[in-house]
Design goal:
Chain A: It is found in: Cell membrane. Chain A: The complex is composed of two ATP-binding proteins (CysA), two transmembrane proteins (CysT and CysW) and a solute-binding protein (CysP). Chain A: Belongs to the binding-protein-dependent transport system permease family. CysTW subfamily. Chain A: InterPro entries: CysT_permease (IPR011865), MetI-like (IPR000515), MetI-like_sf (IPR035906), Sulph_transpt2 (IPR005667). The complex is a heterodimer of chains A (274) and B (340). With 274 residues, chain A is an all-alpha fold. Helix content of chain A is 80%, strand content 0%. The relative contact order of chain A is 0.14. Chain B has 2 domains: 143 residues, D-Maltodextrin-Binding Protein, domain 2 (3-Layer(aba) Sandwich), CATH 3.40.190; 164 residues, Periplasmic binding protein-like II (D-Maltodextrin-Binding Protein, domain 2, 3-Layer(aba) Sandwich), CATH 3.40.190. In chain B, 48% of the residues lie in helices and 15% in strands. Chain B contains 16 helices and 11 strands. In chain B, strands 4, 5, 6, 7, 8, 10 and 11 form a 7-stranded mixed beta sheet that branches. A 4-stranded mixed beta sheet of chain B has the order 2-1-3-9. The longest helix of chain B is centred in the first third of the chain and has 18 residues. The chains are: A mainly alpha (274), B alpha/beta (340). At the A-B interface, helix 4, helix 7 and helix 13 of A face helix 3 and helix 16 of B.
Chain lengths: 274, 340
C-alpha cells in the first residue's frame, strides 16, 4: 500500500479507498444485506418453495431471456449508432446525439404507455404488423421491445468515446497492408471497441433485468407467459409477504451478479487480448 | 427505499409545518386514501372546514395522499404520518393493526355502518350499444366475450371483482366447486391482466381491448362521464357485492400529534347529510339509508351480499383465494395448463 501510495502522482490512497468503501456500503451493501437478511427469516424449504414455484420459474425465463435479446439487439444497433455519430457529420447530428439519452430521462411508465400506444393492434405500427399476424403488444415481443428501448443509451454511450479516440490511421494502415474492409472491421476496429462494447452490453442487460415500469404496460402480464419477475416481487409485497418478495429478489440478484461477473471476465479477456 | 422516501416525506412535511408555524393553532390533517376518491375528498375538505370553523375552531388544513390501497396502507405502516386513512377495503386498514399496531382491534365498530360512510358495488362496463348483449355475470363466461379486469394479486379493486363473481356463482349454482369453475371461465376470457385498476381502464378505453370491463360503480360512472357520454354503458348485474371502503382514525399518530379531536370530527362529518349528498355527487352510494333512498334512479337496486356474509371476512377471503397457493393461483395454473 505504501508502495502504491508512493508511486501515485496524487496522494490520498487511504482516504479515497476509505471513502469508496463507506460510500458503497451505505448506498449499496446495506440494502442488499437487508434483502438477504429478510430471507434468513425463512426456513430452507420455505425459501425453495418461494423461488421455485413454476410461475416464478416461468418469469425468470422471460426476464432473463428478454433482457439477453434486448441487450444483444442494442449491442449491434447501438454500436452502429455510435459509429454514425462519431464518423459522419450531417444536419441535426447534435439533436440525434441528444435523443440517444432520452430513455434515461423519460419516466419508464411514459415510455411503456408510448410503446403500447404504438404497438397495440389499434396503434400506428401495431395496426400494420397485425395484418401480418404479428402481435407485439401483450406478447413476449413487447417485453423485448421495451427492454431494448431502455437499454439503448448504455451501448451507445460506452462505445462512442472509444470510437472517437480510435485513430483513423490504423484503418488506413490496415487497408494499405491489403486487408479487406471486413478484415479491417474484424481484426482492427472490433478488438479496440470490444471491452467498451461489453461494458455497455452488461449495463444494458442489468438495467433490463430490473426494469418494471415500462414493461408492465406492454407485456399484458399474463402469468406463466408474459409476466416478468419484478412484477411477481410486487405481487408478493402486496400480500405483505416480504420474505417471499425478498427471496425472489435474492435469486434475481445472484443470477444477475453471476452473469455480470461472466461478462466482466469476458471484458478482461478481451482487453488483454487487445 | 421506502423508509428513505418516508424520511423525505417527513422532512418535506417538517418544512411545511415549520414555514407555517406562526399560525400555531392551525391543525393539519393528513388523509391517506386510495386513487378514485381524490375529487370527492377535495370537495369534502372544504365542506368540512366550513362546518369545523362554524364551531369556533381554527381552520384545518387537510392534505390528501392517493395511491393504490395496498401500497398506501404499507406507507402508513412504514411511518407515513396519516391522521386518518380512507382505503378501499377493510383488509388493508386491518393491516395497520396487524402489522403496525397503529389502531385497536375494534376499529371497524367505532363508527356507524361498519365505518363505511359511503359504499359502492361492482358493475359491468360495456361499449356503446352493448354489441355483445351483456346482461349479467353469466355472459362473462361465454366463449365470444373478452373480459378486462386487473390482477387480484396486485390490485385491491380487482379482489372485489373476483369476489363479486364468485359470490354470484355461489348463490346461483350452490357450491364452491361450481363457483370455482365459473370464475375460472371468466379468467380464461381475460386477455390482459394489468397490475392495477388504472392500467386496466387504459387497456379497455385507450387500447379498445375487451368487450366488458369489470369495475367499481363509481369508477364506471367516471369513465362514462369523462370519456364521453354514449361511448360506454353501465350494466348493473342482478347480484353483486357491497363494496364498503372503510375509514378510521390512526390512533397512534393522532395521539402523538394531538390531532385526535379534529381527526374524529373529520370522519364523523362524513355521515352528515351534506357529506352523504356529496358522496352521491361523486358516484359513491350514500351509506345512510334515508339519503340512499333519494338516489334510487342514479343507483339501481342490486341484490347485495357482503364479504362477511359469503367469505367470512377479509382475512379468510385473502387466505383462501388470493394468498400463494390459494384458489386464484389454482385458476392461473389451470389456465396455463390448458394453453399448453
Amino acid at each position: 500500500m505504501s508502495q502504491s501510495a508512493a508511486r501515485s502522482v496524487i496522494p490520498g490512497f487511504g482516504i479515497t479507498l476509505g471513502f469508496s468503501v463507506l460510500y458503497l456500503s451505505l448506498l449499496f451493501l446495506l440494502p442488499v444485506a437487508g434483502l438477504v437478511l429478510f430471507t434468513f427469516k425463512m426456513t430452507w424449504p420455505e425459501f425453495w418453495a418461494a423461488v421455485s414455484h413454476p410461475q416464478v420459474v416461468a418469469s425468470y425465463k422471460l426476464s432473463f431471456l428478454a433482457s439477453f435479446i434486448g441487450a444483444s439487439i442494442n449491442a449491434v444497433f447501438g454500436t452502429l449508432t455510435a459509429w454514425v455519430l462519431v464518423r459522419y457529420t450531417f444536419p441535426g447530428k447534435k439533436i440525434v446525439d441528444a435523443l440517444v439519452d432520452l430513455p434515461f430521462a423519460l419516466p419508464t411508465a411514459v415510455a411503456g404507455i408510448a410503446l403500447v400506444t404504438l404497438y397495440a393492434s389499434t396503434g400506428w405500427v401495431g395496426h400494420y404488423l397485425d395484418l401480418f399476424g404479428i402481435r407485439v403488444a401483450y406478447s413476449e415481443i413487447g417485453v423485448v421491445i421495451a427492454l431494448t428501448y431502455i437499454g439503448l443509451p448504455f451501448v451507445v454511450r460506452t462505445v462512442q468515446p472509444v470510437l472517437a479516440d480510435f485513430e483513423k490511421e490504423l484503418e488506413e494502415a490496415s487497408a494499405a497492408l491489403g486487408a479487406s474492409r471486413l478484415t479491417t472491421v474484424r481484426r482492427v476496429i472490433l478488438p479496440a471497441i470490444l471491452p467498451a462494447l461489453l461494458t455497455g452490453y452488461a449495463l444494458a442487460f442489468a438495467r433490463a433485468v430490473g426494469e418494471y415500469g415500462s414493461v408492465i404496460f406492454i407485456s399484458g402480464n399474463m402469468p406463466y407467459k408474459t409476466e416478468i419477475t419484478p412484477l411477481l416481487i410486487v405481487a408478493k409485497a402486496e400480500q405483505y409477504d416480504y420474505n417471499g418478495a425478498a427471496a425472489i429478489g435474492v435469486v434475481m440478484l445472484a443470477a444477475a451478479f453471476i452473469l455480470l461477473l461472466m461478462i466482466n471476465g469476458l471484458q478482461w479477456w478481451a482487453s488483454r487480448r487487445g | 427505499m421506502k423508509p428513505l422516501i418516508n424520511t423525505a416525506k417527513k422532512l418535506a412535511l417538517a418544512a411545511i409545518i415549520a414555514s407555517g408555524s406562526f399560525a400555531a393553532t392551525a391543525t393539519t390533517l393528513l388523509n391517506v386514501s386510495y386513487d378514485p376518491t381524490r375529487e370527492f375528498y377535495r370537495e369534502y375538505n372544504q365542506l368540512f372546514n366550513t362546518h369545523w370553523q362554524a364551531q369556533d375552531n381554527p381552520a384545518a388544513t387537510v392534505r390528501q395522499s392517493h395511491g393504490g390501497s395496498g401500497s398506501q396502507a404499507r406507507s402508513v405502516i412504514d411511518g407515513l404520518d396519516a391522521d386518518v386513512v380512507t382505503l378501499a377495503l377493510a383488509y388493508d386498514v386491518d393491516a395497520l393493526r396487524k402489522r403496525g399496531e397503529l389502531i385497536p382491534e375494534n376499529w371497524q365498530s367505532r363508527l356507524p355502518l361498519n365505518s363505511s360512510p359511503y359504499t359502492s358495488t361492482i358493475v359491468l362496463l360495456v361499449r356503446k350499444g352493448n354489441p355483445k348483449n351483456i346482461k349479467d355475470w353469466d355472459d362473462l363466461v361465454r366463449d365470444d366475450v373478452q373480459v378486462i379486469t386487473p390482477n387480484p394479486k396486485t390490485s385491491g379493486g380487482a379482489r372485489w371483482n373476483y369476489l363479486a363473481a364468485w359470490g354470484y356463482a355461489l348463490k346461483k349454482y350452490g357450491s364452491d366447486e361450481k363457483a370455482y369453475e365459473f370464475v375460472e371461465k371468466i379468467y380464461k376470457n381475460v386477455p390482459v391482466l394489468d397490475p392495477a385498476a388504472r392500467g386496466a381502464t387504459n387497456t379497455f378505453v385507450q387500447r379498445r381491448i375487451g368487450d366488458v370491463f369489470i369495475a367499481w360503480e363509481n369508477e364506471a360512472f367516471l369513465a362514462v362521464e369523462q370519456l364521453g357520454r354514449g361511448e360506454y354503458e353501465i350494466i348493473v348485474p342482478s347480484t353483486s357485492i357491497l363494496a364498503e371502503p372503510p375509514v378510521t382514525v390512526v390512533d397512534k399518530n393522532v395521539d402523538r400529534k394531538g390531532t385526535r379531536k379534529a381527526a374524529e370530527a373529520y370522519l364523523n362529518f362524513l355521515y352528515s347529510d351534506e357529506a352523504q349528498h356529496l358522496a352521491a355527487k361523486h358516484y359513491y352510494r350514500p351509506a345512510k339509508p334515508e339519503i340512499a333512498k333519494q338516489y334510487l334512479e342514479k343507483f339501481p337496486q342490486v341484490n347485495f351480499f357482503t364479504v362477511d356474509e359469503v367469505f367470512a371476512g377479509w382475512d379468510n377471503a385473502q387466505e383462501t383465494h388470493f394468498n400463494d397457493g390459494g384458489r386464484f393461483d389454482a385458476i392461473l395454473e389451470a389456465i396455463a395448463r390448458a394453453r399448453r
